Amino acid sequence: MTVTRVYIASPEGANGRNVVAYGVLNALTSKYKTMVFRPAVSNHDDFTPILLAASNAGLGVALSTGLDMHKVRTDKDTARGDIVGAFNDAMDVSRADAALIVGTDKSHVNDPTSYEFNANVAADLKAGVFLAVCTIDRWPHELDETVHLSIEGMEAAGNKVLGIFVTGCEPRHAFSVKETLAKYGLPVWTLPQIPFTDESTKELALATFRKNAPTDEVLAALDVENTAPITPYAFQFDLLGKAKSNKKTIVLPEGEEDRIIKAADYLLEREIVNLIIVGDKNAILARGAELGLKFLDRARFQAMDDENVLKPMVAKLCELRAKKGMTEEQARKQLADASYFGTMLVVLGYADGLVSGSINSTANTVRPALQVIKTKPGQKLVSGAFLMCFKDHVAVFADCAINLNPDAEQLSEIALQSAETARAFGIDPKVGMLSYSTLGSGKGPDVDIVEEATKLLKEKAPDLPVVGSIQFDAAWSPDVAATKAKGNDVAGHVNVFVFPDLCAGNIGYKAVQRSSGALAIGPVLQGLNKPVNDLSRGALVQDIINTIALTAIEAQ
Predict the structure, then answer these.
(1) Which of 2, 191, 363, 437 has the smallest CB count inside 10 Å?
(2) Are 268 and 295 in contact (CB under 8 A)?
(3) 527: alpha, beta or left, given left = phi > 0 and alpha = psi -120 to 50?
(4) Any bridge partners for residue 273, and if so which?
């Protein structure tokens, strides 16, 4: 089901914005089951109840509001993630066909970032935007410039503006205002000044709106193609939704780590995955209680000395490592390592995947997987990719974790694996084989390897869009590509970046992550028979949540 989402945004947050919101809601409810959502409101918000009374989705104030505005001002980035979650909870409960999202109100606190915040939240919620701009005390050129900057701000966040409401406009000026703003190619409606602060004036507000912005025109403005940006907050929530749609079981060998059980509690509360936590159940639950965690008891706990599991595990490990002369005594010693024990739970079919590394090294996570899970049929290596969540899209960077100096054959394999990872997360892959040369502009043995890898990749996957060798700027920027790779359809549009070696890849993803503010999710270990993913030892709880979710999606 396609959901119509429209965000009412105003640089003022007042001066007619309420009339616009109420009128648009009336138009939407004439055709759709429509919910109302307020991302951030003050504790003396009186307008939301008026909107809810006119809605037909049956939600109350609690589900229809995200956060208190004071909390938002404290940490806007964290707030955005919470708002996406609250919005989707409301959508799930209401099962609405449309959503009216009304931005922040006018405040006595002058927050210069307020409009940018609304633009970002509109992008997070994948909504088209109606602007409400007041013309009171503005000359025509000042109104024009305000509209221009308002559109610019919305588009900078990746949003599509669908129409403009000019409020406080005297009827005798309506024609000239529409004529002035016609250059933006958008529907423009003018509304005279109407006080609308409580229930007593809602009928007048609605009658005035309908007279100046007919319902059929408003609905027609919404009936356009809108390719919503993929913001980091939207992508993270989509990860959780995809994981929940086909629940898998993930094993967490590091049950003694606070960050792990906090992430587990979050996922278990929302029933996103099934979890096996390795360790002593009573000790873990006691620690969870100390941390205020309430849902850990939904997990399955697996003690490492449980002979009912350990005995068949030892036998299987001896079988898998028979060529290495593995004895039962050696197997038991090996399985005293929680990462190895957890990996064998995947091998035996108790779990669909594993996430580890918050207190163990990458080697401790990867080595057992390579020894007993092994690579997929036809694949000779394992590589590590990061999902890089930028402001309005997601890209894949590889290999940033495993292979030191891959040869041409290995590079082509990494590229294939990375393209498959992109597809798994809804990204249509366009591959760039990175180098210090763009299509022959530089020479040297390192360039030769990348160009040979590109040739092999084209032979293996002739339908996969790929360009190489190519410099990062020409792969990333259409403007640079127009000069350095003129006529190449992939250059400037790459979303799967394959680095020539581990040094470049690891430096590259960290440099981009730290300097651009991109969210890096991973590494995703590519090429294994079963999904096993590694955590950074500095991982935050949200990083762990994301990694468990993407592991579950891989297992699907």
Answers:
(1) 2
(2) yes
(3) left
(4) none
